[in-house]
Every structure is written in C-alpha cells, then in structure tokens.
Design a protein that fits this description.
alpha/beta, Rossmann fold, 8 helices
C-alpha cells in the first residue's frame, strides 16, 4: 500500500469541524405539522447539527406510551419521506429502526441505537408532552447526563425530574445560553 507524504507548516492544526452532533426528533408524528417539521429543520440548521434524524414511533410504542390511536407506521413514515424530498435537505434522515422491528421499542433501545449509528453529541428534539413522559421513566437520569433536550415549545407543566435537570434542556427558538 502506497503512503502519501504531506508537508504541513510547524504548528499547523486542521480547522475545527463547523457542524457537530445529531438532533433527533423523537415523536409519533401523528399530530406534527409541516410547519413544526420546518421548525425542527431550522433549529438543526441554526445550531449547526450534522444530522436531523426524524425518529417515528411504531404503533405499539405509541400505544404503550400514550394510549392514543395512530395511523399505521408506514403511512407516517411515507409522509416524512415525502416532506424530506420536498425540502431537498441533505442533513435530514428518517430513521426506520422501529419499522424493521415491527413492535414496541423502549426509549432506552432507541437511544442506544442512535448512539451507535449517529455522531455525538446527541440532542433530542421533543414536544413538551413527550419530554414529560421521558422524564417519568426510571432511566431518565441515566440518559439526561449523556444527551440534551430541545423542546419544541414551552411546557405548561414540567415534570419534577425535568425541572431538576433544567440546565440540560432548552426551548427551540430561544437563544442558547452559553
């Protein structure tokens, strides 16, 4: 195997990557409008994420999480693919793990899959209702130290664990506090 020799000036450091991390929109996408998808894409662009991953939930996962009826997984997934094609953005990906599994997928399994496949750091983009549900899970404190949350809107009610980790989440559209 031939090696190529490169000469660089003393002290040269390659430029830092402009974009970092993955923003994962974790939702059933039953009631998410195109405007809300556009807001998520705008958030990913403004905060310079490498990827925006749309993670639709399987019917069984939604049934266990919220007991609300939803359309078939493939219909919601097709709508997301159609929206992605209309936008023409290369940073948007539709994750199909739950479609392949065809059954209930715990949030822990979904997050482990995301951390294996996509670049870190990880940010979960959620509605306030989904974030409160996530905070009610026993594994919440284990995961909140490994990722951050971005809520699509200001929550009316904040779960006590979510309030405890207030420094690990913010609201889309608000200026980042650094």
């Amino acid at each position: 195997m031939k090696r190529e020799i490169q000469n660089v000036p003393f002290g040269y450091e390659p430029p830092a990557a402009e974009r970092k991390g993955t923003l994962v929109f974790y939702d059933s996408f039953e009631h998410i409008s195109d405007q809300e998808l556009e807001q998520a894409a705008r958030t990913a662009t403004e905060r310079k994420f490498t990827k925006l991953v749309l993670y639709p939930l399987h019917e069984e996962t939604v049934r266990r999480m919220s007991k609300e009826p939803v359309k078939a997984f493939y219909k919601r997934e097709d709508r997301l693919h159609e929206w992605k094609r209309e936008q023409g953005r290369s940073l948007v990906t539709v994750e199909s793990l739950e479609g392949k599994r065809k059954k209930y997928t715990p949030l822990d399994s979904a997050l482990r899959h995301i951390s294996e496949v996509y670049p870190s750091p990880y940010f979960l983009y959620m509605t306030p209702e989904t974030a409160n549900q996530f905070a009610s899970y026993s594994s919440f404190e284990e995961w909140i130290v490994k990722l951050r949350l971005i809520l699509s809107a200001a929550p009316d009610y904040v779960h006590p664990r979510l309030e405890k980790f207030r420094h690990r989440w913010d609201i889309a559209g608000e200026e980042k506090k650094e």
